[in-house]
Amino acid sequence: MEVIICQDAGEAGRRAARRIAAVLSRTDEPVLGVATGSTPLPTYRALAELVDAGDLDTSRVTAFALDEYVGMPVDDERSYADTIRRTVTEPLGLDPASVHVPDGMAENLVAGCQAYEDAIREAGGVDVQILGIGGNGHIGFNEPTSSFASRTRLKTLAPRTRQDNKRYFAEGERVPTHCVTQGLGTIMDARHVLLLANGEKKAEAVAAAVEGPVSSMCPASVLQHHPHAVVILDEAAASRL
Ligand code: GLP
User: Fold this and answer.
1) What is the ipTM of this complex?
2) Could you tell me which of 40, 80, 171, 226 has the fewest CB atoms within 10 Å of its CB?
3) The domain spanning residue 17 has which CATH number?
4) Among residues 68, 100, 136, 164, which one is catalytic?
């Protein structure tokens, strides 16, 4: 793992964007793995600046998101489909038809998960996967105890994750209990992975992921086995290393 510690989240975003652009520019049919959450937003803004400056061509980019809530309509602004549209597809000028998000509304969720795996494979696999990290060490929605061999599947959200994500929901509104997420095996198939974390609240999870034992109790620790994993942190997120 290569660990890069930046002064602040803005610098981390710009460093990440440069890395991503370099990988995407090396291939004719680039495939980008995108994540939701607040952490990658500076990276998406920095990528949009590269596009606007003519330094990154996104016309042939295909994108796959990591996860989605089950039962959340795609036009609900809390859905990851809508979040990706607002934060990635539109600012980076991607073709909406080339941006894929797992279907949390599918009548047959199991078949939908298999179809998602097939779509990633048919696109040639992910060239570079952007990841945030949950306070409990999750990546995507692979909660502690997730199998390292897991593929896209239905998962129950951990109580801590539901608590962390409560901020997106109104008082008294029920936070979703289930999600569809790429598995750890799916994520590990990406040719490059870039884990981002900002702020003191992530410091413990980052230390466990980077320096702790490789354990399904900290799903992000599996990235220690990835041949091209880069971790980009601000100083606060790196404070327990
Ligand atoms: C959610 C997402 C993850 C994300 C995590 C951290 O649970 N499923 O992909 O990494 O939140 O979010 P944030 O970046 O807002 O801290």
Assistant:
1) 0.95
2) 171
3) 3.40.50.1360
4) 136
